[in-house]
Amino acid sequence: MTSRIISGAIALLIAVAASAQEAAETEAVSEGQRIYNSLNFEQGPGLFDVTSRAAIQLPEGYDRLNPSDTAKLMELYGNITTTEEWYVAPTDQSWFAVFSYEDSGYIKDDEEIDSGDLLRSVREGTEAANAERRRLGWAELNIVGREFEPRYSDTTNRLSWAILAESEGSEIINYNTRLLGRTGVMSAVLVADAENLDATVSEFENLLTGFSYKPGNLYSEYREGDKLAKYGLAALVTGGAAVAVAKSKGFIKLIIGGIVAFFAFFGNMFKRLFSRNRE
Questions:
Q1: How far is the C-alpha of 241 from the C-alpha of 230, rounded, in Å?
Q2: pTM, two decimal places
Q3: Has residue 244 got a pLDDT over 60?
Q4: What backbone torsions phi and psi does residue 55 show, to the nearest 5 degrees?
Q5: How far, in Å, CA of 75 to CA of 72, rounded?
Q6: CATH architecture for segment(s) 41-278
């Protein structure tokens, strides 16, 4: 009799715990859905600002968010955010990119890049960011390796490279692009599923042909006496520039998208739910 009572009590506790977890998850989804539905997705076609210095031409089927809504969405996706980022993505959210600008001054593009320093720097920064992720109860991020070596075009003044990351058994790509301007550099970080990387990068680079600095901000418009940056191309790749900005915040961030860390217990289901509700 006593053993049956104990067994029944244990079963009841398990049922209560399961019910409480289900209620918490339902509440999290509901709150997440409320936040998501409050976002103002501005739809292409059209020319949209990404900072006051630059704009991007978005065709039909692409969206943009202002900095305030971008911050809300990135937090929902489990990212450490700032208030000066612009979200751009296809309406189906098969990938997304975040644009931000660093008013560093004119960056000379005559410097050699040691790609070996890239992984060391990103791993160090990611370890620091993981401490913040643990504090927030978010999934940690691990750097697996390099997907694309750094490459720079002196025709477009565009620097790009890709990092392969992992979180909770899922892989994700951060494809980094830096677009040099007269007074600083635009960062565009593409977050994509590793399985569709080549097609996604091709689509993103095609989209970047619609990016342009506004008159007076073009790299080619540099004039003697303009402010010069304290670092070159190598620092953009190894994270030297990011460290200078992030030290005051106590961490360096590497963007990680909803494909990996969008509420640890729901993952892709939550993302698909949002997509359906926007249709």
A1: 9
A2: 0.72
A3: no
A4: -145, 165
A5: 5
A6: 3-Layer(aba) Sandwich (3.40)
